[in-house]
Amino acid sequence: MRTFNFTKMHGLGNNYIYVNMLEERLNEEQLPELARKVSNPYTGIGSDGMILICPSEIAPVKMRVFNNDGSEAKNCGNGLRCVAKYSYENGIVSDTSFEIETLGGLVTAEITEVDGIVKQVLVNMGKPRLKPSELPLLGFEKEVVSEPVVFGGSRLDMTAVSMGNPHAVFFIENIQDAPLTTLGPVIEKDPMFPEWVNAEFVEMVSEKEMHFRVWERGSGVTQACGTGACAAAVAAVLNGKAHRGDDITVHLAGGDLIINWTEAGDVLMTGPAETICTGTFFVND
Ligand SMILES: N[C@H](CCC[C@H](N)C(=O)O)C(=O)O
Question: Rounded to the nearest whole angstrom, what is the distance from the C-alpha of residue 117 to the centroid of ligand 1?
């Protein structure tokens, strides 16, 4: 019987099964199925997906992200904070500031620790990508900022932002009315998004505060989405609802993130990361 060790961690309730690939060996072809298996709340461990902590040739560590449907994503904000925490607490890195390689590019993490335990992580997520081709998004040539689009018979004003992974952001009057489970899956797999998309609904409280809910590509409704919160802050600035250089408090279902789209152009994300448990997973083929 094949087994491997795992650590379950979460960022604001967005939880993943983390596997240290510096110590474990998993079959590349079986990774999507394995992600589905470990994510299953009835026959697996239960999670929003699986994240691999891998060796890298260009950084101390590399993160690979698999959603609970088995699809691989290019970035994960909550995942990055947990990878940073795991890497520091398990001696993979010794500095408090270090780079992490993702499929969406290199990011820099800065940890805050108390007695060796990482409580908070600031990640420089790099620059947002705003060209439709960078999501990818079909049918548009220029940056998409509050463009009216019809999904499932409803007309929504869409702002498109990539943080290495694709996001469609919609501003609404009241977050309680977010059509998460009705329009979320329709938006996620609309043909205009050849690689599907994460859908975020935002209610602005002020120029420095917003409520946020998300239907994630490949995982559905989650408690939090770090790249989505970054995309929402960028979208708020693009729509004149917030300002570059300001700390914006994003209230997600699982808690708050502080996002700042700096004047220099990088997006900074600050928030917690927590370990839930460790264990051994039995791969029942
Ligand atoms: N579902 C996302 C990956 C996870 C992102 C999210 N959990 C985050 O914290 O950024 C995608 O397919 O692009």
Answer: 25
